[in-house]
Every structure is written in structure tokens, then in C-alpha cells.
Design goal:
six-stranded antiparallel sheet; globular; Zn_M74/Hedgehog-like; alpha+beta; ARB-07466-like C-terminal domain-containing protein; single chain; ARB_07466-like_C; four-stranded antiparallel sheet; signal; disordered N terminus
């Protein structure tokens, strides 16, 4: 686990699939679970934070757990202290954190792709984001092995995936601030669109608003495809 910048959550609705992140009671890090599974784990459910799921699936949080005086349940990637498994609702990556401080990152500076197959606009955008969020981006991906234009801007070297959790497929709540910063700096970045946490924002069709009000995307089946471990940014 890693730790760096301090962030406070606001308790607003988040779209998530079962066993994926949400923002729950008191703005705490949560997980979308059935109310029965949440209750049996000692958690508290709130409505409206997992709107894509059945009515019995709600955002589950657990404010305290047995890992020191500050023990609390959160995604392990976002814990700045030690963690213990088996004490929190949800999947194994939701653990009891010994620290009360909310933090993200602590990663070494990622390597940037060279300009070539990865276009200059994408490399420039990657450098601007990393400069704005030192220690928050673990790894950067630009191109994929596919013919341009293909089905993704990665095929043309005009997209960057900013990996901001401890590993691929590892959930985090870190990307929200990055994604909103990208939106707010859309002109300088030459932004085409940005995706984070199963939501998308496009400057040509969307007004500036908090991530919680961005357009929802379908459940694609896992943490990475639902963009809970990285922020995807496409450039013009």
C-alpha cells in the first residue's frame, strides 16, 4: 500500500457494480454489496450510491475495525498504514486500515513514452497530469497493438491510461481528483474525453460538473474495464 496526498471525500452518489467502490456513509470509502452481506459483516448501508445495481445492493461502509485505535475499512491501495484482512465487508482488497488519514499515491515518478507511436499531444498531457499530481500515478500506458483508427484512441497513440492504484485490477478512489482536474484543464490538454469510475465526460457534450454527475457507463465486468484502477484520457 502507498500514501501521499490527503483527500477528503464528499458523500455523493457514485455508480458502481457489485464488489466495486462507492462513497458511503460519512463520505467513507465503501463497497457495493447486498444489504444482507453488509449487515452480516458489521457494516452500514446507504441508498443511492450504487444506482446501477438491484435495489438490495447498496454502498456498505464500516467505520471502525480492530486494527489499532484508528482502525477503519477502506480499499487497501488507499491506506497509509498497516492493513488486516478479514475484518471488513466486501472483497479481499477491502481491508482494515490502521490509519485515520485519507491518502493516495506515494509512487515513484512513472516513465513517459517517447513521441512517435504515442503522439506528442498524449505525451504532453501525461506530463502535465503527473506534474499536477506528484506521486499519484504509478504507471502510464499509451499505445495498444491495434491498427489506427481501431476501436480505441490507444490504437492511434492519442490516449493515456494513468494507473493510480497499487496494481492492475486493484481498486482505488484516487482517480476522481485527477479526472476532475483533467476536465477543468481541458483546453490546455486538448481533451477529447476522460473516463473514471464508470463515468465519462466529454467537453463537446457535457457541462463542467463534479464527477458524481458525469454520464454513467455500462458495467463492463471488472475493476479495470470499469476504470476503478486508472483514469483514461483521450486527446484530440
Amino acid at each position: 500500500m502507498h500514501f501521499n496526498t490527503f483527500i477528503l471525500f464528499t458523500a455523493t452518489a457514485v455508480m458502481a457494480a457489485v464488489n466495486e467502490p462507492c462513497i458511503g456513509s460519512g463520505g467513507r470509502a465503501g463497497v457495493c454489496l447486498t444489504t444482507s452481506a453488509c449487515s452480516s459483516s458489521g457494516g452500514v448501508s446507504i441508498s443511492g450510491a450504487c444506482p446501477s445495481d438491484p435495489s438490495n445492493v447498496k454502498c456498505c461502509t464500516k467505520a471502525s475495525c480492530a486494527n489499532g485505535s484508528a482502525g477503519n475499512c477502506r480499499w487497501a491501495s488507499d491506506c497509509g498504514g498497516g492493513t488486516k484482512a478479514g475484518l471488513c465487508p466486501g472483497p479481499a482488497q477491502m481491508k482494515c486500515c490502521s490509519s485515520a488519514v485519507t491518502g493516495f499515491g506515494g509512487y515513484k515518478a512513472p516513465a513517459f513514452p517517447g513521441v512517435g507511436a504515442c503522439k506528442a499531444v498524449a505525451v504532453s498531457g501525461a506530463k502535465q497530469v503527473v506534474k499536477a499530481f506528484p506521486g499519484r500515478v504509478r504507471q502510464i500506458y499509451c499505445t495498444r497493438d491495434c491498427a489506427c483508427p481501431g476501436t480505441s484512441d490507444h490504437c492511434c497513440g492519442k490516449a493515456i491510461d494513468f494507473m493510480c492504484s497499487d496494481g492492475g485490477g486493484v481498486p482505488t478512489l484516487s482517480g476522481r481528483q485527477i479526472a476532475e482536474w483533467v476536465m477543468n484543464n481541458r483546453a490546455a490538454l486538448k481533451l477529447k474525453y476522460v473516463i473514471w469510475g464508470q463515468r465519462i465526460w466529454n467537453p463537446s457534450s457535457d457541462g463542467v460538473k463534479p464527477w458524481t454527475s458525469w454520464r454513467a457507463m455500462e458495467d463492463r465486468g471488472d475493476i479495470t474495464q470499469n476504470h476503478w484502477d486508472h483514469v483514461h484520457v483521450s486527446f484530440k
